[in-house]
Design a protein that fits this description.
alpha/beta, Protein-Tyrosine Phosphatase, Chain A, 3 domains
Length: about 500
């Protein structure tokens, strides 16, 4: 089956970030798209509405009878279990079904030059920055990104699948589908791979760090001949992975002491407008190196400087000039839910961020402190991801909030499927943060937490709300509460 053969595609689990982007792309391509889900929240719900995708709420065997026609293909999300009544009905009706990564591998990726951005952190921002820069440089790239960019018109675009044209892919290590328990990036036929970071995460599918490393070993093993690996050496685990590569390897990192070839040199501007810096190439570890690029980005934080260096290296390898790369990436404004300003009421600025891993929490708060110097930082955190709802990082989170002046911790999202002995404790985290001298408070409910935070706010504060889900509409509720009283 070819993409051009599809007239109607039904998607089970359509509101996932990647699935929603794919659904919108199919709709733009003239394909009838229907989908079902039980969790709908912005920004993906807005994307689907704007795209004209027909949504059915909830999963049911009866959903198939509600469709305007029998689908040519059903795409099944990785959140769907084999007991899901809708997929059971699809199988019983003998309708062809697949996962999204499998569909990508078979329908879109065989002939393109696939640029896969992978790693525990930074995938969405780096892949978005790369795709945007390539667009600005006139490369007409295909791209598939797990987030909503502030600059790209879509998260999924496949306008040119001719041989050799580039395809930017966010390479997720999470599993593919209930019948295909391997990382999504196993299906992405990589040519060039960016490896931003490797840390333990996704405790629901990776029992140990060894299992995580095995997943990334598989990615490196799959790089096609003629490709290359661009890897950040700030993570010791990545150094151990490099011998797996059978293609040329280029390294970057925060400091030359890591052994990285490319490092940030002088950072001469870092404020609300972003960061201006130069990039050094270390030719001799005993020497200071030489400046090879002067770059600026509208994103705060050292982690984003490193993301920009990775993008610069990819673009250089594609033969793009230094000036064109610098001009392109300098216009990038970021990704929604990544340090996104959602509103300012009575002098209180509310930020939305996807951070949920301790490293991401720490780096996000550091970057926001730099971006908004002199402003008091209130951090609100919802333990929602599969890992954060488990106690694997219980102690690490206590050190992740040191940049905050006051912290509010929500009760973990649904823990009913997690053994009690393995459950994360918000109460314990509140106690641990307080012992480190930072005022910390427990939020029993979203509504009660909104009132707590609003009462704590005063003019000039920045409130960083950290969650990888909808958080019960916490941000719009907080903005409303601030308007109606709240901040002092």
């Amino acid at each position: 089956m070819k993409l051009s053969d599809l007239k109607h595609v039904h998607i089970i689990g359509v509101c996932g970030t990647l699935m929603g982007a794919f659904a919108a792309f199919l709709k733009r391509s003239g394909i009838q798209v229907t989908g079902s889900d039980q969790n709908v929240y912005p920004p993906m719900s807005d994307v689907l509405k704007q795209a004209g995708v027909t949504l059915i709420s909830g999963y049911s065997a009866d959903n198939l009878s509600k469709l305007p026609s029998t689908p040519d293909l059903v795409v099944v999300g990785n959140v769907i279990s084999p007991s899901n009544p809708e997929i059971q009905a699809v199988i019983a009706a003998k309708i062809r079904y697949t996962s999204l990564p499998e569909a990508m591998e078979n329908l879109m990726l065989p002939n393109t030059r696939n640029l896969v951005v992978s790693g525990t952190h930074g995938k969405t921002t780096t892949s978005s920055l790369l795709a945007f820069t390539l667009v600005q440089c006139g490369k007409n790239p295909n791209y598939f990104i797990g987030g909503v960019s502030s600059d790209l018109p879509h998260s999924f675009q496949a306008a040119n699948l001719e041989k050799g044209n580039v395809f930017v892919l966010e390479g997720d290590e999470y599993d593919t589908a209930y019948w295909d328990k391997v990382p999504k990036f196993n299906h992405y036929l990589p040519d060039d791979v960016v490896l931003t970071s490797v840390e333990y995460d996704h405790a629901d599918i990776y029992p140990t760090m060894g299992h995580v490393l095995k997943a990334f070993e598989g990615l490196l093993d799959r790089i096609r001949p003629g490709g290359r690996l661009i890897a950040c050496l700030d993570f010791a685990e990545i150094k151990g992975l490099l011998p797996r590569a059978k293609v040329p390897v280029t390294t970057y990192g925060a400091k030359k002491e890591t052994g990285a070839r490319y490092v940030p040199g002088k950072i001469w501007t870092e404020n609300k407008s972003g960061v201006a810096f130069n990039c050094f190439e270390i030719c001799d570890q005993d020497a200071g190196g030489k400046v090879v690029a002067n770059l600026s980005i509208q994103l705060p934080g050292l982690h984003n400087v490193l993301n920009a260096i990775a993008v610069w290296l990819v673009c250089k390898g594609l033969g793009i000039s230094d000036q064109a790369i610098a001009d392109g990436m300098g216009k990038f404004r970021g990704v929604k839910r990544r340090q996104e300003e959602r509103g300012e009421v009575k002098g209180v600025l509310v930020i939305d961020d996807f951070a949920h891993h301790p490293t991401a929490v720490r780096e996000t708060l550091k970057a926001l402190k730099t971006k908004y110097p002199g402003r008091r930082m209130i951090s609100v955190f919802e333990p929602r991801s599969a890992t954060s709802r488990r106690k694997v990082f219980q102690k690490d989170y206590a050190d992740a909030f040191f940049e905050a002046n006051e912290v509010f911790i929500a009760k973990p999202y649904d823990q009913t499927k997690i053994n009690e002995a393995d459950q994360f404790s918000s109460d314990q985290l509140v106690d641990d943060i307080a012992k480190k001298g930072v005022p910390a408070h427990l939020m029993e409910t979203v509504e009660g937490g909104v009132v707590q935070v609003a009462k704590a706010c005063r003019k000039g504060d920045v409130v960083a709300v950290l969650s990888n889900g909808g958080f019960g509409g916490f941000i719009p509720k907080l903005l409303d509460e601030l308007k109606n009283g709240g901040a002092s």
